[in-house]
Design brief:
Elements lengths: L3 E8 L3 E9 L4 E10 L3 E10 L4 E9 L2 H13 L8 E6 L10 E2 L2 H8 L9 H14 L5 E5 L9 H4 L5 H4 L10 H11 L6 E7 L3 E7 L2 E5 L20 H12 L5 H14 L2 H6 L5 H9 L3 H25 L4 E5 H6 L1 H8 L11 H4 L5 E2 L8 E4 L4 H13 L2
Parallel strand pairs: 1-6, 6-8, 9-12, 12-14
Antiparallel strand pairs: 1-2, 2-3, 3-4, 4-5, 7-8, 9-10, 10-11, 13-14
Bound molecules: adenosine monophosphate.
């Protein structure tokens, strides 16, 4: 295949990230990347950098809504300064129970994925909006969806099935997992060094952890939605369902509208809980570390809970895998928060996990386990955009 400029679009609840790669046979050259951030504010940021990290654009703009934000991106990409994309890859957290394969996007496919907005309520609305806009603004360019849930499709039914009545299972309610493109990119980067029993902890503002056997997903902490599993920046993670009922009863005392009540509950479990809820301060690990240094007990409790949950999950995943050969940390916290890695691994010697203090004193890719550690512990930044480009190139070749 000749060289192919591929654009990657990755939308979050208040941002749209994008990057472009020149994809030749086996070659992937990053051309540029950028983002519009702060959608819904007067002080939104719009920036682009070339592959060497030089700023091509750096603007502060009013970004009242996602329409204005995406129009900025599309206008910039249509200008003569950038190669027009020959294909576009979209990251999608979940396509619901009917869209499980990465594939060409059509208007019908977007409608189908939108039916399952409840499976990724913070991500799906903006992602489907961007897909429709991309089809409109780039009418001659094929667009492909790349699903986070795709990597987790190999989980056995005993893992993915939820203990609920059959009528809800039949509606597609089961564990799908998320961060799949990140996990896939770790396996991809390890290439022939993928161990038989691998645990990867993707610790960012959203946090999850997966057990991977021989390169295939066996289990992951997130469930139907990214709200399940580990405690995240603003999400509860797994929680006694009785707590949800307690909160719902409290909300029901303030409204008789069931949809309004469900939305209010969604806000509590997805936007006001986790590290933010426990600390009452911030969902950002850097803020929490600063507060801990200043003696803030609630920040300490929030981070202790985060660490404790991850340690518990590691224990469970080791049991599922029948041991572990390698533990990988990735995501903003996994890559950068030296203390979180040290606290998570402390006392896991019984599982063969031992960190080297000096080696762990690092940000970015490194091997951080001690010389005699039975389990190799590594830090590997994710390469999600590259993974999406790989899928697009594969699908273009079909
Ligand atoms: P992500 O969602 O992957 O971008 O990760 C965001 C999280 O990474 C936030 O909690 C940040 O505080 C955390 N993070 C980023 N850089 C650092 C750093 N240098 N030290 C500690 N935490 C960091």
């Amino acid at each position: 295949m000749s060289s192919l400029p591929v654009l990657v679009l990755n939308s979050g609840s208040s941002s749209i990230k994008f990057s472009a790669y020149e994809a030749g046979a086996g070659e992937r050259e990053k051309l540029f990347e950028g983002a519009v951030d702060g959608i819904g504010t007067d002080l939104g940021k719009f920036w682009m950098k070339d592959a060497a990290g030089r700023k091509l654009l750096d603007q502060t703009r009013s970004l009242p809504n996602r329409a204005v934000a995406f129009k900025l991106v599309a206008d910039a990409l249509h200008s003569s300064s950038f190669p027009s994309p020959a294909a576009i890859g979209h990251r999608m957290v979940s396509g619901g129970p009917t869209v499980l394969e990465n594939q060409l996007i059509t208007p019908d496919l977007i409608d189908e994925m939108e039916r399952y907005t409840a499976f990724a309520p913070l991500h799906t609305p903006i992602a489907v909006y961007i897909m429709r806009e991309a089809l409109r603004l780039f009418p001659d360019v094929p667009n492909f969806v790349c699903l986070d849930s795709y990597f987790h499709r190999t989980m056995p039914e005993v893992v993915s099935h939820m203990p609920i009545p059959e009528e809800y299972s039949a509606m597609g309610v089961r564990r799908f997992g998320a961060h799949g493109i990140s996990y896939e990119s770790i396996v991809y980067q390890l290439q022939s060094n993928v161990p038989e029993r691998l645990i990867v902890a993707h610790l960012g503002n959203g946090a999850s952890i997966s057990a991977i056997r021989g390169g295939w997903c066996l289990d992951t902490s997130m469930g139907l939605t990214p709200t399940g599993g580990l405690i995240s920046g603003t999400r509860t993670g797994d929680i006694d369902p009785g707590v949800l009922l307690f909160i719902l009863h409290k909300i029901a005392a303030t409204t008789t509208n069931a949809t309004e009540a469900a939305d209010a509950l969604e806000t509590v479990v997805s936007k006001r809980s986790g590290l933010l809820g426990v600390s009452g301060l911030s969902n950002d690990m850097r803020d929490l570390r600063e507060a801990i240094a200043a003696g803030n007990a609630k920040a300490r409790l929030a981070v202790d809970k985060f660490v404790w949950t991850i340690r518990k999950w590691i224990g469970g995943l080791v049991a599922e895998l029948g041991g572990v050969d390698m533990l990988v940390f990735t995501g903003g916290i996994g890559e950068n928060d030296i203390d979180s890695r040290a606290e998570i691994c402390a006392g896991l010697g019984a599982l063969g996990i031992e960190l080297d203090r000096e080696r762990n004193n690092v940000r970015g890719a490194a091997t951080i386990s001690a010389e005699g550690s039975r389990v190799t512990v590594r830090v590997i930044p994710p390469a999600e955009d590259l993974m999406i480009v790989n899928h697009v190139v594969r699908l273009m070749g079909k």
